[in-house]
Design brief:
The protein is an alpha+beta fold. It folds into two domains: about 85-230, YerB-like fold, CATH 3.50.90.10; about 245-385, 3-Layer(bba) Sandwich (YerB-like fold), CATH 3.50.90.10. About 15% of the residues lie in helices and about 25% in strands. The protein has six helices and 23 strands. The strands form six sheets. A ten-stranded mixed β-sheet has the order 7-6-3-5-4-22-15-18-19-20, sandwiched between helices. A five-stranded antiparallel β-sheet has the order 14-13-12-11-23, with no helix packed on it. Strands 1-2 form a two-stranded antiparallel sheet.
């Protein structure tokens, strides 16, 4: 029997184990694929992971970010609207812008002959005076303050007592010539001492003649030209002017009576004031017809009516029947406001002082805020007054019964 050869230390079992180890490692490498061998082509279901697939996605989906909570936007604080500053209009008691309350009053002489009617300017006037001129024909003086008339006229000539009424406000006095007495006073004190003389014969650029009426009943102007004329003659805005009369708001409707009326008449023209309870005004009628402003077609309807008796006298035949008036002093008056008519007095202590009105007890009357008509009648002229009657308020009566 042949014996197997002896194996040295370098060629026995240890080398055999090393060979087997190398073979095992090589097999494992072959199973996993060579690092440099190309990748197999993807299968039809590559990228899709089935229920039993053990494939791991190439990217791990991120956790969705939480929805941000919106930060509340604060509501902006509204800018407060400033309360408009108002001032009391001296001639009417109305609350108006300060620049309107500071306007210098402008008095305009206005014709009242039959062929001058209807006149323009009533609607915007603060105060209207009417008094006889001569021959039984009256004349107006419209005083403008906060109002802006679109037309005023026909403008006519001055009389002395009108200048004295305009002097109560140191007004710009607009006229076309005038009586010798009026012109003398305007020449002496018409540069701001009593009034500011604004005669059409000098300041014709601010007045004009229309073609729809015959002279001398066709001289007109308007608010824009009146304000420019006032500045031209040097009339500055008023400084802290205070009303010469007392004013209060309209009385409540249930305190206003109904049916009051005042009737007066000149030789040419019968005038009637009929109280309108809802509007708290005195609608003015001329010869039975409602009077209207030619420029605006608005009814002539003042808030207040004062009828005052004044003694008039003739200046003589050489003065063409012109009159003088005792308008400085005192006399009888009827004051109508809020539907009531009280009998009292008027008083004017000097040429430049205001004409004020008092009730039968001697207390100064309170007028209603708004326009005032001063109706000047020769002493002894009949003045017919129909007093209003109280109106029952069913709502108040019902509340009282409860």
């Amino acid at each position: 029997m042949r014996s197997l050869p002896n194996r040295s230390a370098s060629g026995g079992r240890a080398p055999l184990r090393r060979i087997l180890l190398v073979v095992a490692v090589a097999g494992a490498v072959a199973a996993c694929g060579s690092p440099t061998s190309p990748a197999p082509p993807p299968s039809a279901s590559a990228g899709a992971v089935g229920p039993t697939s053990s494939a791991v996605p190439s990217t791990v989906p991120s956790t969705p970010a939480p929805t941000p909570v919106p930060t509340p936007v604060p509501t902006p604080t509204p800018t407060p609207v400033p309360t408009p500053v108002l001032a009391v209009a001296p001639l009417t008691g109305r609350l108006v812008a300060p620049e309107l309350a500071a306007r210098h009053p402008i008095a305009v002489m206005v014709d009242d002959q039959a062929n001058a009617r209807p006149q323009s300017g009533f609607s915007e006037a603060s105060i209207v005076w009417q008094a006889p001129a001569e021959g039984g024909i009256p004349r107006y003086m419209m005083i403008f303050a906060e109002g802006d008339p679109s037309s005023v006229g026909p403008v006519r000539s001055a009389r002395l007592y009108y200048v004295q009424w305009a002097a109560e406000w140191k007004a710009v006095f607009v006229h076309v010539g005038g009586s010798p007495q009026a012109m003398a006073l305007l020449q002496a004190k018409g540069r701001g001492q009593l009034v500011y003389n604004a005669d059409q014969y000098r300041w014709g650029a601010y007045l004009w003649r229309t073609t729809d009426r015959a002279a001398p009943h066709n001289v007109y102007t308007d608010g824009k030209h009146l304000r420019a004329l006032g500045a031209k003659v040097g009339a500055a805005p008023l400084e802290a002017a205070r009303p010469a009369w007392r004013f209060a708001p309209d009385a409540a409707l249930d305190l206003r009576p109904a049916g009051a009326r005042i009737d007066v008449a000149y030789r040419q023209g019968a005038f009637s004031y009929r109280y309108d309870r809802p509007s708290n005004t005195w609608r003015r009628y001329l010869d039975g017809k409602l009077q209207r402003d030619r420029a605006t077609n608005k009814a002539v309807a003042p808030k207040n009516v004062v009828v005052m008796e004044v003694r008039f006298g003739s200046l003589g035949a050489s003065q063409h029947g012109r009159l003088e008036a005792a308008n400085v002093g005192t006399g009888r008056a009827w004051i109508a406001t809020n539907g009531t008519v009280v009998r009292g007095t008027w008083k004017k202590t000097s040429v430049a002082s205001p004409t004020r009105f008092f009730d039968g007890a001697g207390k100064q009357v309170t007028l209603t805020v708004g326009q005032t008509f001063v109706q000047v009648m020769p002493a002894g002229t009949p003045v017919k007054v129909v007093k209003g009657t109280p109106v029952a308020d069913p709502a108040n009566a019902y509340r009282g019964a409860r």
